[in-house]
Amino acid sequence: MFGSTPLPQSEMTPFHPRSPYAASKCAAHWYTVNYCKAYGLFACNGILFNHESPQRGENWKITRAGFAGDYVEAMWMMLQQEKRDDYVVATEESYTVEEFLEVAFGYVGLNWRYFRPAEVDYLKGDASKAKNVLGWKPKLGFEKLVKMMVDEDIELAKREKVLVDAVYMDAQQQPREFGTSYLWWLCLKGLRCSWDGYRFFTS
Predict the structure, then answer these.
(1) In this structure, how many other beta carbons lie within 10 angstroms of the beta carbon of residue 109?
(2) Is 182 among the domain residues?
(3) Is residue 168 part of a domain?
(4) Does residue 35 lie within any of the structural domains?
(5) Using an 8 Å Cβ cutoff, are 88 and 130 in contact?
(6) Is 153:145 a contact under the CB 8 Å cutoff?
(7) What's the mean pLDDT when you consider all of the chain?
(8) Mean per-residue pLDDT, 192-200
(9) Would you state the pLDDT for residue 13?
(10) SUPFAM superfamilies this protein is in (predicted)?
(11) Would you list the DSSP string of 75-143?
């Protein structure tokens, strides 16, 4: 929604969408504001910066990560106010994919070599209003979030019986593509893993 705008981005920062997806989010924001003013509806806009949880699928990246559970709590707190308003919800911290890999791989004692550079403008949310008005603040820090996601991936990999029965046996014979749920299991089994910027492979 903010695109290329000065840091940090708050509720007062003008929107500058740089994709159809971002433009659609801005439109939804203004639909909500206009209907509230026209019909007296009680509805709030949460301008949510990136958030993650162990339920995230395999195609993800981390740059401005907060815990989804903390963000949902902020949504609930918005709806408990006497007056509707719009809020930026953010951890006010930013991390690169490289930093995510350092924490994630370090947590299980592994080294990493490849990382994908950032694709979008650097964004940093100013959640002062949510903190001052709602009394909200994120409870789960970046490192704990990363470790939670790694633990979930490891448990998921353990449950992937198809990996044990089929993939591991022929992984030495030809390169195969895997999602992150397989990554930790493969590395812990001693296979050589690499990342091409989009996917993990073994060979």
Answers:
(1) 8
(2) no
(3) no
(4) yes
(5) yes
(6) no
(7) 73
(8) 47
(9) 83
(10) NAD(P)-binding Rossmann-fold domains (SSF51735)
(11) HHHHTTSSS---EEE--S----HHHHHHHHHHHTT------PPP-S----B--HHIIIII-----S-HH
Q: What does the pLDDT look like over 142-180, one tens digit per residue?
A: 788 888 888 888 777 777 655 555 554 444 444 444 444
Q: Is the pLDDT of residue 65 over 70?
A: no
Number of domains the chain contains: 1
Which residue do the tokens 């603040």 mark? 137
Integer Cα distance of 45 and 87 in angstroms: 6
Residue 197's CB: how many other CB atoms inside 10 A?
A: 9
Q: Could you report the per-residue pLDDT of 38-60, keeping only the tens digit for each?
A: 999 999 998 887 655 555 555 55
Question: What is the spatial distance between Cα 47 and Cα 33, in angstroms, rounded to a whole number?
Answer: 13
- The CATH number linked to 15 is 3.40.50.720
Q: Which residue has the tokens 């990996």?
A: 163
Entry pTM: 0.53
- On whether the CB atoms of residues 146 and 108 are closer than 8 A, the answer is no
Distance CA 98, CA 180 (A): 15
Q: In DSSP terms, which residues pair with 88 in a beta bridge?
A: 47
**pLDDT value at position 199?**
46
Q: Look up the domain containing 96 and give its range.
A: 1-140
